[in-house]
Amino acid sequence: MLYLFTVLMITCGCVFLLISVRPVNHIYKTDSNLGWLVLSNLVVFFVFGYCGVFYYFVQKMTINTADVIVSAIMMAGGFFVFLVTRLSLKSMVKLNQLAAQERSNLLHDPLTGLANRAYLMQTMQAHIANEEPFGLLILDLNHFKQINDGLGHYFGDVLLCQVGRKISQDLPNTCTLYRLGSDEFAIVSATTTSENTSQIDNIAQLIHSTIDKNFEIENHELSVSACIGGTDFPKLGRSADILLGQANLALYESKKSTSPFTYYSPALETSAADNLDIATRLKQAIALEEFELWYQPIIDLSDGSVKGAEALIRWPQSDGSYTVPDKFIKIAEQSLLITQITQWVMNIVKEDIHLFNQTNLSLCVHLNLSVKDLQSSYLVDNINAVFSQCDWTKHGLMLEVTESAMMTDVARVKTTMAEIANTGLAFSIDDFGTGYSSLALLRDLPVNQIKIDRSFVSNILKSEDDLAIVKSTIYLAKQLSCSTVAEGVEDTQTGQLLKSLGCDHAQGYYYSKPLKRESFLEFADSHRAATQ
After folding, report:
1. How far apart are the two ends of the chain, measured CA to CA in Å?
2. What does pLDDT average to over the chain?
3. Cis peptide bond prior to 234, omega within 30° of 0
4. Chain segment 399-417, per-residue pLDDT in tens
5. Contact by Cβ (8 Å): 432, 452
6. Same domain for 486 and 365
7. Is the pLDDT reported for residue 178 higher than 90?
8. pLDDT tens profile 214-230
9. Structural domain tally of the chain?
10. Is 188 inside a domain boundary?
């Protein structure tokens, strides 16, 4: 009996060693460490050694206590090797899984689970290295910030997940969706030809049709739209960084022109370089006060007198030309120089209103505030510093805010406008009808005047729809105790119709184009004499 037990222990030890050979070889293939190869060979050597001992005991036929002890040690040794190799393999597998998970986390967005910017760069670099043509699109959701501000970040996060999931489902198998951050996504479309323009355009159309449907989140139906910019390899660029920059330029152009999709062209690079040049020169222009302030008359339709004027900034150049305000104002907003420009305008307006009063012109000057002005924590203090000592402030100055600017950060705009209104200043809502404001917001804000956008006014003689909108706006303004100004009046018939509809004031080239201060004073003085 003791003999069989001894032989059985040696056999078990040998079996343990044989079982250990496979995990040791698996570890060596994974780790490629020479030590594991040595251990594998030692295990095989021990197996042969165990077989030799087994043969010795079989031939011996008689077993003593020492033989039993040796057999027990050999079985324990085999089990030890088995246990070490098994646990080592499990630990290595777990570590590899954790490393793989970490790599996946580094390459995927934690919110949506989509591939992220790092993954996008790796993918593009792989395509470029293999000379595989592909298209790149970058899309940005419109008005996403309003959803975050209005409903909270939870709704914004859920919306991003739903948008990402829906686009991923509808994209063809050759496309991969990435989330770059915030409300910005990217799509790489693998193609078999270098002529991808039409395919990229088709994908852009597919994305628009996909997100054109409402997204429901806890009984809230949210609608979104997007601007998209696109480029492709190898036709337009041959590095990942260049392609990403091109797609971003195209996206910026799409947002600026409110176009659903813009395909990159070298002309956009020129435009970007021009913008950079303007931004650089703007700093010098602010420091040297190179700007001029012009005034466009606002006419009282009841008697034809000059009721006020809108202050419009102009930037003269050394060759006698002027940089278009729409261009440099947008660049100033992007570079945060707009607040310095607004400060300069306020100082000049203060001086000019004082001059108007000295010439017995009782006018209300309209001063435009940008989105960045409304978001600045210094706006209220700056206005107080410039105008607090002026006794004509309440009737001599009107602050204009565009409807779209009010919607950029509703809570902050409400607070800022309320603080300014408490100082006695009045507000006029510019370009009314072109933004996304609600009637409730219009009711809650300290608004004193509504300016009807020229896009409605210019066609009221021909378009029943535009006429209905103008009529409704005038009626709404009266119910809210607000005065009205019609912008873009180009002929006498339009002015007469607006007067008959009850519009209070009008502004446009029919009455006068924007004028330098001296010319405006002459116009106002002669117009005053003509109406008396």
Report:
1. 136
2. 86
3. yes
4. 999 877 777 777 788 889 9
5. yes
6. yes
7. yes
8. 888 888 888 888 999 99
9. 3
10. yes
- The residue among 135, 118, 108 whose CA lies nearest residue 190 is 135
Residues 166, 190, single domain; the answer is yes
Residue 272 — very low, low, confident or very high, per pLDDT cuts 50/70/90? confident
R_g of the chain, CA atoms, integer Å: 38
* Token digits of residue 29: 């293939």
Dist CA 4 CA 9 (whole Å): 9
Look up residue 319 and give its two tokens.
Answer: 């060759």
Residue 276 inside a domain? The answer is no
CB neighbour class for 351 (10 Å; exposed up to 12, middle 13-18, buried from 19): exposed
- 89 and 121 within one domain: no
* 400 and 463 belong to one structural domain: yes
Least confident of 95-104, 162-171, 367-376, 489-498: 95-104
Q: What contacts 303, CB < 8 A, 6 or more positions away?
A: 531
CA distance 333 to 297: 26
Does residue 364 share a domain with residue 464? Answer: yes
168 and 248 part of one domain: yes
Mark whether 232 and 295 lie in a shared domain: no
Same domain, 94 and 126: no
**Which is higher by pLDDT, 69 or 399?**
399
- Distant-in-sequence, close-in-space partners of 60: CB < 8 Å, separation ≥ 6: 67
Which range of residues forms the domain containing residue 74? 2-107
Neighbours of 450 (CB within 10 A): 25
- Residue positions counted in the chain: 532
How far, in Å, CA of 385 to CA of 305, rounded?
Answer: 32
- Number of C-alpha atoms within 13 angstroms, CB side, residue 399? 28
Give dist(CA 355, CA 311) in Å, integer. Answer: 14
CA distance 156 to 177: 19
**Spatial separation of the C-alpha atoms in residues 317 and 319, rounded to whole Å:** 5
From CA 11, how far away is CA 74, in angstroms rounded?
9
Residue corresponding to tokens 């049709």: 209
DSSP 458-474: TTTTT-HHHHHHHHHHH
d(CA 33, CA 16): 23
Whether 269 is in a domain gets the answer: no
Q: Is 488 left (phi over 0), alpha (psi -120 to 50) or beta?
A: left
Q: Where are the alpha helices (H) located in 108-196, listed in sequence order?
A: 117-129, 144-151, 153-170
Phi, psi of 488 (to 5 degrees): 75, 30
